[in-house]
Amino acid sequence: GENVEQHPSTLSVQEGDSAVIKCTYSDSASNYFPWYKQELGKRPQLIIDIRSNVGEKKDQRIAVTLNKTAKHFSLHITETQPEDSAVYFCAASLAGGSYIPTFGRGTSLIVHP
Amino acid sequence: DSGVTQTPKHLITATGQRVTLRCSPRSGDLSVYWYQQSLDQGLQFLIQYYNGEERAKGNILERFSAQQFPDLHSELNLSSLELGDSALYFCASSVAEGGGASGELFFGEGSRLTVL
Prior knowledge:
The complex is a heterodimer of chains A (113) and B (116).
Chain A: E1 4-7, E2 10-14, E3 19-25, E4 32-38, E5 45-51, E6 56-59, E7 62-67, E8 72-77, E9 86-92, E10 102-103, E11 107-112
Parallel strand pairs in A: 2-11
Antiparallel strand pairs in A: 1-3, 3-8, 4-5, 4-9, 6-7, 7-8, 9-10, 9-11
Chain B: E1 5-7, E2 10-13, E3 19-24, E4 31-37, E5 44-50, E6 53-57, E7 64-68, E8 74-78, E9 87-94, E10 106-107, E11 111-115
Parallel strand pairs in B: 2-11
Antiparallel strand pairs in B: 1-3, 3-8, 4-5, 4-9, 5-6, 7-8, 9-10, 9-11
């Protein structure tokens, strides 16, 4: 089955800095890579996703890049703000198929004011 | 609001007991997933149902079981509870299997189980 590795487990930055979280996956058949944000005590919510036919996707201050050959994808957050502090999970799955989304172990992002 | 409803939000019980967690998926969603999140742990997939049928099993203990009813709500039954079962249990739903064409899972607010 799919295996997703996520690094780092904790990331501490100053407000205004950029943050990068990296994930690797094992199953080359995976074609859908979502990122979820989980604020303290809340449910995970999708913030951005990318499909395997696209190399990069941006949405305001967040972007995701995908390298299919190397089987890794990354989340980039620019101009971080204290409200970006949360746990971020990457996942890999086969959209439209029967694959169950496999999540990484999460990255706790702390943005210091 | 994701549209996924989980009850109860909090549950405190003793070791050896049995509890039932309930999930109502978003209107129109046929697939329900259960995930366990322990302290400082990621989202561990337990089990998935699609339109009433079990579709996939993850790291679900034999003491745990689940089902999806004709009205598409799902229940996760946890029995012979141990201290280590204390966790946040999330239910998520999607239109189709594997997240459907969009791939997105919609999570409920979770049920926090504390076993004393």
